[in-house]
Specification:
The protein is of the alpha+beta class and 168 residues long. 42% of the residues lie in helices and 17% in strands. The structure holds adenosine monophosphate.
């Protein structure tokens, strides 16, 4: 019913050096290298009730809707379920995912900069961005991943600058 691909390698944030301090140099690929490629997926005919259960059980905010060939058909987040409930009442829980998902999904690749993903999230007012490789789902970054990464990056920048100044 629900898919999940690959596993996290459990390591911590990537090292930041004076060479990669340039803004926008950190990429989505660096986040995935740390968090892994796990993505919870579902199919368009599943119901909102089923997805609500999955989101609660897994402690996540969105699922990626995929076709039989693994292509990304859409994204359904907790906000879509809340909107459906507000409009249709609890009867909406029996509706198909395809009826409430967002079909026009903003995606990234491993080469996309973290800064660019942050801009997409801010402008589009969403918190999840699927990552594609050769057109196939390869991972997912959430706003939590991006913020965590940016904090580690800023910490690393401070450390690298302190070391640079100390040795200059
Ligand atoms: P979220 O903030 O991720 O819970 O999503 C808020 C709204 O944006 C929901 O309607 C989602 O279906 C939609 N959404 C989430 N992620 C994306 C994305 N990467 N591209 C387009 N729409 C999205």
């Amino acid at each position: 019913m629900f898919g999940r691909a690959s596993a996290s390698n459990g390591s911590i944030a990537p090292a930041v050096t004076i060479e990669n301090l340039q803004e926008g140099q950190m990429t989505v690929g660096r986040i995935l290298a740390v968090k892994g490629h796990d993505v919870v997926t579902t199919q368009p005919h599943r119901t909102l009730a089923e997805i609500a259960r999955v989101l609660a059980d897994k402690g996540i905010g969105a699922v990626i809707v995929t076709g039989a060939d693994g292509s990304v058909l859409g994204i359904l987040s907790e906000r879509d379920i809340i909107r459906a409930l507000a409009r249709g009442g609890t009867a909406a829980l029996g509706d198909a995912v395809s009826r409430h998902m967002t079909a026009k999904v903003v995606t990234a690749t491993e080469d996309t900069s973290v800064v660019s993903v942050m801009e997409d999230m801010t402008e589009g007012r969403f918190r999840h961005v699927p990552v594609l490789k050769a057109g196939k789902l390869h991972g997912l970054v959430s706003i939590g991943d991006v913020v965590k990464h940016r904090l580690a990056e800023v910490e690393g920048e401070h450390q690298a600058l302190r070391e640079y100044i100390a040795t200059a």
